C-alpha cells in the first residue's frame, strides 16, 4: 500500500485516470437518468468529474505526508504543482472523453429507438 501511495508521475496518473473514468461513468449512469440530457448536462458532468480528478490528485500526492507525518514538507511542496497538475490534466481529460462517449452512445441508442418505433 505504501508503494502505491508513493508512486511516480505515470503511476499516479494511471490511478487518477482509472478513478476519474470510473467515477464519471458511474455518475453519468446513476445521476444522468434524472436530468435532461444535453450539452449543458454534459458540461456539468465534465466539470464535476474534473473537480473529482483534482481532489483525487491532490489527496494522492499529499497522503504520504499526512500518513507518515514528515516534518520536512518543503520537498513535497516544491514538486506539488508538477505532480498534481499532470495527474489532474490526465483525469480531467479522461472525464471529458467518458462524457463524450456516453453522449454518443445515448444519441445512437435514441436514434435506434426512434427508427424501430417509426
Commentary on this structure:
- The protein has 118 residues and is mainly alpha-helical.
- It has one domain (2-117).
- It is 86% helix and 0% strand.
- The protein contains 4 helices and no strands.
- The protein has helices at 2-5, 9-31, 39-68, 74-117.
- Helix 2 (9-31) crosses helix 3 (39-68), helix 2 (9-31) packs parallel to helix 4 (74-117) and helix 3 (39-68) packs antiparallel against helix 4 (74-117).
- The radius of gyration is 18 Å and the shape is elongated.
- The model has no long low-confidence stretch (mean pLDDT 82).
Return Rg in Å: 18 Å
Query: Globular, elongated, flat, extended or rod-shaped: what is the shape?
Result: elongated
Q: Could you list the spans in which at least 5 consecutive residues all have pLDDT below 50?
A: none
Strand content: under 5%
How many helices in DSSP terms?
Answer: 4
Q: What's the count of strands? A: 0
Largest sheet: none
Order of helices and strands: HHHH
- The total tally of domains equals 1
The helix/strand class is mainly alpha
Question: Mean of residue pLDDT?
Answer: 82
Distance between the termini: 55 Å
- Helix content bin: over 70%
Supply the key terms.
elongated, 118 residues, mainly alpha, 4 helices, single chain
